[in-house]
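Tokens as discussed.
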């Protein structure tokens, strides 16, 4: 997935906002909370994409080639995975996990905030 494809996909999810921060990373939020982060790894040609996952998905995905606990986030006890090298996830698998990350983060918002954003 290219950065343009990543941005277009995340932009199509409900109530999202985009910022560029943390060393020129493409950061997507729902309700002001981060659900996806992408940036180029200087030593690799693949776009590194980090996303929130369930505890079970975290246990499974971190063992897969091309995936790892997301730097910084996972070391702080958060269940975030980074797709950073080949083979990693295919585009459809990545989209599935980005949708799920969006849902997990949105579900953590207050009921009123979800209502205000049109997520309920």
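Sequence:
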């Amino acid at each position: 997935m290219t950065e343009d494809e990543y941005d277009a996909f995340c932009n199509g999810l409900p109530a999202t906002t985009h910022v560029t921060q943390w060393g020129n990373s493409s950061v997507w939020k729902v309700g002001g909370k981060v659900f996806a982060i992408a940036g180029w790894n200087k030593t690799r040609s693949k776009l590194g994409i980090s996303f929130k996952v369930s505890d079970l998905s975290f246990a499974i995905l971190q063992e897969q080639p091309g995936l790892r606990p997301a730097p910084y986030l996972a070391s702080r006890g958060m269940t975030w995975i980074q797709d950073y090298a080949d083979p990693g996830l295919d585009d459809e698998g990545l989209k599935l996990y980005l949708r799920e990350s969006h849902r997990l983060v949105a579900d953590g918002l207050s009921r009123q905030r979800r209502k205000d954003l049109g997520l309920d």
